Task: inverse folding
């Protein structure tokens, strides 16, 4: 191990070879201004982040340097808030808060305050509304009737509309509602906007629509699966109705998704904005960083990167500022880590493997799972409470672009695409992009672009996609944020006739997942990534075009880890 560490430190980094696109994103999103007026390069960022975070636990110079090198070489990249906020006077470096809506006047007021504080200081939010009484229920103390959870969701949605998250990005918001809730059917269809609203959204992305700033999920528990499969269960009809209505919505518009909390995870209904972190406790946090599997050269190196990434995130639980006092109390109690993986599909492609369970990959995932024990060792060394859980696979976003690899467990989205991104409050620009993973493989091996399997190829055999996520979930103690890209609704592979087939496949794997979403191509206006021909993108590389309107920078998964 000692020789490996020295080799990693002495090895010439390739960060200077970062593509122009990745470098531009890095400079726009994460680079601080230096004293001479210039901006940090990637090596500067890696050092700044390592130094500030690890000094909070008085880490050794050796650990700081090893962390610096792994970040510099893009083998481990902390979540975007670490890259952006480390070293600033207010350094809230943890991406999201997990909140519970309480069924009282005081609870609603407190939730609005918590959500505002979280979003304004740079954290996305996920909120479980299942405890809020249904619309129309009698309010005994003051008289009248309750407006229900959806009205509170819309209030939070409007807070998000008015807040530029942490002063630098759009708000990321998630809502969850139990399948048992009396308002669940209205909730499932709440984002089925009228044709008039869709037309206005297409004309002006900023046009307000119901829950347009919020991603939504239906929450499933052990009772759901018991009721779904037992015709004699009193809740059987309701479970079936909720399930098939949700599946239909997923395939048509991408919403709702499902979140799943069964067995040992019973009661962990709270989620962050992208749903990879789970908790039972209001005001818990997500604390994210990802290992770039595509850049890991051996099982031995994987062990060291898992160790360093785990130690870094543990230190982050002492370094990060918080938006209000309860967050620190819950963080100290649970000390959650969200060590993730990206570059998984690139690793498979580099090794000539399909997007499917694999014996060699399993060896890397088994090492990944040792983060639990590593976290205990460093916690004892630094006299901190033991983390309750340590692994979560975020969808990542801009850090995936900086890493120049596939994001999370996602397959290559498409070989080439048009990427829209926000540039000021009204201006939207777009660029033609060649997927960096696909481009490297095509150029290195002189491959035909059509020979590389991407997300749309996998949509033709969706069971492979779902089965793979369920397999990887065995090694993740929190959750995996993953979105299945699908062809447009109404197309040959996604229509009324395919709903039953998709739902029958999904229900087989759903008890072994913690959550899943879909995104049919073109389901929402302002879609940030649009597939195009590889040859067309090749002709327009480096050119920037202007559109007007506002568009979320990432896919439906939100901005966690970005």
Result:
């Amino acid at each position: 191990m000692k020789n490996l560490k020295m080799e990693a430190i002495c090895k010439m980094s390739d960060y200077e070879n970062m593509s122009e696109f990745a470098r531009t994103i890095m400079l726009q999103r994460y680079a601080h201004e230096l004293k001479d007026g210039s901006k940090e390069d990637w090596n500067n960022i890696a050092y700044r982040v390592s130094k500030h975070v690890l000094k909070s636990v008085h880490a050794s110079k050796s650990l700081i340097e090893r962390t610096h090198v792994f970040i510099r070489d893009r083998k481990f990249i902390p979540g975007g808030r670490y890259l952006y906020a480390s070293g600033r006077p207010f350094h809230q470096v943890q991406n999201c808060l997990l909140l519970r809506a309480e069924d009282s006047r005081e609870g609603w007021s407190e939730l609005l305050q918590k959500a505002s504080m979280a979003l304004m200081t740079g954290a996305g939010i996920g909120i479980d509304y299942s405890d809020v009484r249904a619309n129309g229920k009698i309010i005994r103390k003051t008289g009248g009737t309750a407006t229900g959870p959806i009205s509170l969701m819309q209030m939070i949605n409007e807070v998000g509309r008015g807040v530029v998250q942490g002063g630098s990005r759009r708000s990321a918001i998630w809502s969850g509602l139990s399948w048992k809730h009396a308002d669940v059917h209205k909730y499932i269809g709440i984002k089925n906007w009228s044709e008039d609203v869709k037309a206005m959204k297409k004309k002006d992305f900023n046009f307000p629509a119901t829950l347009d700033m919020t991603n939504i999920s239906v929450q499933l528990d052990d009772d759901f699966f018991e009721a779904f499969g037992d015709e004699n269960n009193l809740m059987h009809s309701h479970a079936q109705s909720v399930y098939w209505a949700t599946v239909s919505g997923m395939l048509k518009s991408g919403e709702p998704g499902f979140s799943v909390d069964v067995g040992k995870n019973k009661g962990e209904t709270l989620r962050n904005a992208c749903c990879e972190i789970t908790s039972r406790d209001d005001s818990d946090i997500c604390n994210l960083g990802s290992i770039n599997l595509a850049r890991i050269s051996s099982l031995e190196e994987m062990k060291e990167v898992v160790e360093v990434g785990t130690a870094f995130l543990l230190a982050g639980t002492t370094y990060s500022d918080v938006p209000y006092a309860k967050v620190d109390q819950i963080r100290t109690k649970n000390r959650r880590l969200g060590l993730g993986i990206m570059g998984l599909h690139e690793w498979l492609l580099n090794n000539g493997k399909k997007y499917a369970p694999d014996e060699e990959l399993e060896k890397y995932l088994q090492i990944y799972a040792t983060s639990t024990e590593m976290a205990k060792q460093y916690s004892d060394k630094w006299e901190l409470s033991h983390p309750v859980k340590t692994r979560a696979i975020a969808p990542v976003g801009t850090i995936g672009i900086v890493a120049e690899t596939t994001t999370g467990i996602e397959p290559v989205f498409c070989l080439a695409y048009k990427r829209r991104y926000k540039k000021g409050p009204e201006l939207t620009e777009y660029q033609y992009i060649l997927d960096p993973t696909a481009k490297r493989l095509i150029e290195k091996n002189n491959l035909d672009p059509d020979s590389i399997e991407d997300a749309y190829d996998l949509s033709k055999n969706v069971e492979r996609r779902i089965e793979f996520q369920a397999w990887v979930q065995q090694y993740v103690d929190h959750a995996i944020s993953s979105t299945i890209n699908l062809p447009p609704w109404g197309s040959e592979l996604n229509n009324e006739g395919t709903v039953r087939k998709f739902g029958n496949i999904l229900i087989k794997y759903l008890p072994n997942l913690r959550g899943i979403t879909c995104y049919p191509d073109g389901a929402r206006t302002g879609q940030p990534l649009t597939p195009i021909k590889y040859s067309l993108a090749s002709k327009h590389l480096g050119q920037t075009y202007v559109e007007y309107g506002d568009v979320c920078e990432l896919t439906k998964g939100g901005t966690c880890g970005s």
Q: What stands out?
A: The first helix runs from residue 2 to 10. The chain is about 40% helix and 15% strand. Residues 1-12, 548-562 have pLDDT under 50 and may be disordered.
